[in-house]
């Protein structure tokens, strides 16, 4: 072990002497301890290779954010005038100075990188561990994820030359150890009989009655939905067929979905409530496999692929996420800004908020509240869960709270301030009162009927709520397109401008961390957002009546 470290130091000295411009290193990212759930096994073999990605600083992200809000805020003169792929890339692209600086640094190490993003803000290259340690004053080591036994190579810190620091957003994967605590529905068995009451079993018919969701869409509307799935959660065609026969007999039982594979994914239960609720809207299942090197379970790979598409999905729903403390700030910010790019082009992005109340994605012991990611990103719409029908109440598992990484966006400032005034000193010190509040909106998430392996079962979780809302807004998109109007795109400014059109959820709480969590109330709250949709009200607000 000592000899390997000595070799690394000798190599580092030689590189520094050969490249005086890159002599002074500045710490760029660091973890103080080995992340929860991982065990440090020692240094990685110096001869083993690793694929690294460098994220270059973009030239005008502030301009892109302004453009996004301009096209997404109902009162703006530019509302609905979504940007083209090329217009977004013009904001995201690094300056020539940045590109040249990073390429010069890599060239000094004999590296010719590959550009892996349309805007040129991501570069990729493969080197051996000895070289990676030299280039970034790092100590790449082997870590084992205890729950699965999976081994991965990471470092607890890395540095970049001071001359390079103004140009580099992050090097990845380095300090990113995030692994899914997975947002999956809890499952309980039920009878094979069609549910007799929406009070105990939620079906598409119940959702149509509760929210006024239409049964069909105008023909040739152009609306579509993409459902992203991870870690071997696959939809089953046979189960979808049974689901449609049982609960949507007005939809042809052979209706299916397209599959797009990322990182070797194959062909989740979200499909039944997109195909089955958004009758007539084409659905694509994006299956993200385990063959990824992006360091964050495929989240980076899928978003880079969607950004590169000429026509990205109009609605994207995801029922997976992480505890925010497990995601380094730099990669969380980079992913969040990627969601901003899609939103500016007209994609409505929905993420389930999680199922751990105020304790994160899943319930766990904690002393301070744990927000979830990507729900804390201000450029996505976070979805919480409700239960019951007379009236709906907040589901106790519905994750919600305030981000510690992202500041409160302007579009929700008034609504969150009102809630904090209502909350008073309750839970003081357990959450970041200045952070982005989530979720934004909610839908049914308990006692939801699906077909699994040929049997009807009940499921619960915000992973039920997100595809229900994805279907709702894709049907609205269909009607907007048929009327010659622009699609919804980034939804949040509309939500907070029109809080009164949603059904408020005023009862319930989301306990965790040895507290009762946050209480629900009329207006916005960090359990169910502004409430649940009323389709007729949405139509009116979007000028369709």
UniProtKB/TrEMBL annotation:
- Output the CDD domains linked to this UniProt entry: Peptidases_S53, Pro-peptidase_S53
Keyword Metal-binding present in the record's keywords: the answer is: yes
Q: In the record, what terms sit under GO molecular function? A: metal ion binding; serine-type endopeptidase activity; tripeptidyl-peptidase activity
- The reply on keyword Signal is yes
Q: In which compartments does the protein localize?
A: Secreted, Extracellular space
Q: Where is the signal peptide?
A: 1-18
- Top-rank lineage group of the source organism: Eukaryota
Q: Which UniProt keywords apply?
A: Calcium, Hydrolase, Metal-binding, Protease, Serine protease, Signal, Zymogen
Q: Which SUPFAM superfamilies does its entry note? A: Protease propeptides/inhibitors, Subtilisin-like
How is this protein annotated for GO cellular component? extracellular region
GO biological process, alphabetically ordered: proteolysis
Q: Which residues cross the membrane?
A: none
Q: Which InterPro entries does the entry link to? A: Peptidase_S8/S53_dom_sf, S53_propep, Sedolisin_dom, Tripeptidyl-peptidase_I
Q: Which PANTHER family match?
A: PROTEASE S8 TRIPEPTIDYL PEPTIDASE I CLN2 (PTHR14218), TRIPEPTIDYL-PEPTIDASE 1 (PTHR14218:SF15)
Protein name (Swiss-Prot/TrEMBL)? Peptidase S53 domain-containing protein
What is the originating organism of this protein?
Sphaerobolus stellatus (strain SS14)
């Amino acid at each position: 072990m000592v000899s390997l470290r000595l070799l690394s130091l000798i190599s580092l000295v030689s590189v520094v002497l050969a490249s005086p411009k890159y002599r002074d290193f500045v710490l760029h990212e660091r973890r103080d301890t080995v992340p929860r759930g991982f065990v440090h096994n020692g240094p990685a073999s110096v001869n083993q290779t690793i694929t690294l990605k460098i994220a270059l600083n973009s030239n005008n992200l502030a301009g892109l954010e302004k453009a996004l809000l301009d096209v997404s805020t109902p009162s703006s003169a530019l509302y609905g005038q979504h940007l083209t792929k090329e217009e977004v890339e013009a904001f995201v692209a690094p300056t020539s100075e940045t590109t040249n600086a990073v390429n010069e640094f890599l060239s000094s190490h004999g590296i010719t990188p590959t550009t892996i993003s349309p805007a040129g803000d991501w570069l990729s290259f493969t080197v051996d561990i000895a070289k990676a340690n030299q280039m970034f004053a790092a100590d790449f080591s082997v870590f084992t994820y205890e729950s699965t036994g999976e081994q991965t190579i990471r470092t607890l810190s890395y540095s970049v030359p001071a001359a390079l620091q103004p140009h580099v957003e992050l090097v990845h994967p380095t300090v990113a150890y995030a692994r899914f605590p997975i947002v999956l529905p809890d499952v309980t068995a039920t009878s094979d009989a069609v549910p007799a009451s929406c009070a105990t079993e939620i079906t598409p018919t119940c959702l149509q009655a509760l929210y006024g969701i239409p049964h069909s869409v105008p023909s040739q509307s152009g609306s579509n939905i993409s459902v992203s799935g991870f870690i071997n959660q696959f939809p089953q065609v046979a189960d979808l067929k049974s689901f449609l026969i049982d609960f949507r007999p007005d939809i042809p039982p052979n209706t299916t979905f397209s599959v797009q594979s990322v990182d070797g994914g194959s062909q989740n239960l979200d499909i039944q409530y997109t195909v089955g609720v958004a009758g007539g809207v084409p659905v694509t299942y994006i299956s993200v496999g385990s063959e990824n090197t992006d360091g964050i379970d495929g989240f980076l790979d899928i978003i880079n692929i969607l950004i590169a598409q000429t026509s990205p999905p109009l609605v994207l729903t995801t029922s997976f996420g992480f505890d925010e403390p497990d995601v380094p700030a730099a990669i969380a910010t980079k992913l969040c800004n990627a969601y901003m790019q899609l939103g500016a082009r007209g994609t409505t992005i929905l993420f389930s908020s999680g199922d751990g109340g105020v304790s994160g994605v899943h319930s766990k012991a904690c002393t301070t509240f744990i927000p979830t990611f990507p729900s804390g990103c201000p450029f996505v719409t976070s979805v919480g869960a409700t239960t019951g029908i007379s009236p709906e109440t907040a589901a106790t598992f519905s994750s919600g709270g305030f981000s510690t990484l992202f500041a409160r966006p302007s579009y929700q400032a008034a609504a969150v301030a009102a809630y904090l005034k209502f909350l008073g000193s309750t839970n003081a010190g357990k959450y970041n009162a200045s952070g982005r509040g989530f979720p934004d909106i909610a839908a049914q998430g308990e006692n939801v009927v699906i077909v699994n392996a040929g049997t009807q079962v009940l499921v619960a979780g915000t992973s039920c709520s997100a595809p229900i809302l994805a279907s709702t807004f894709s049907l609205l998109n269909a009607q907007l397109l048929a009327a010659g109007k622009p699609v919804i795109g980034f939804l949040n400014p509309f939500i907070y401008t029109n809080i009164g059109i949603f059904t408020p959820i005023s009862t319930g709480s989301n306990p965790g961390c040895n507290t009762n969590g946050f209480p629900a109330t009329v207006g916005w709250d960090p359990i169910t957002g502004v409430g649940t949709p009323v389709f007729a009200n949405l139509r009116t607000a979007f000028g369709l009546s």
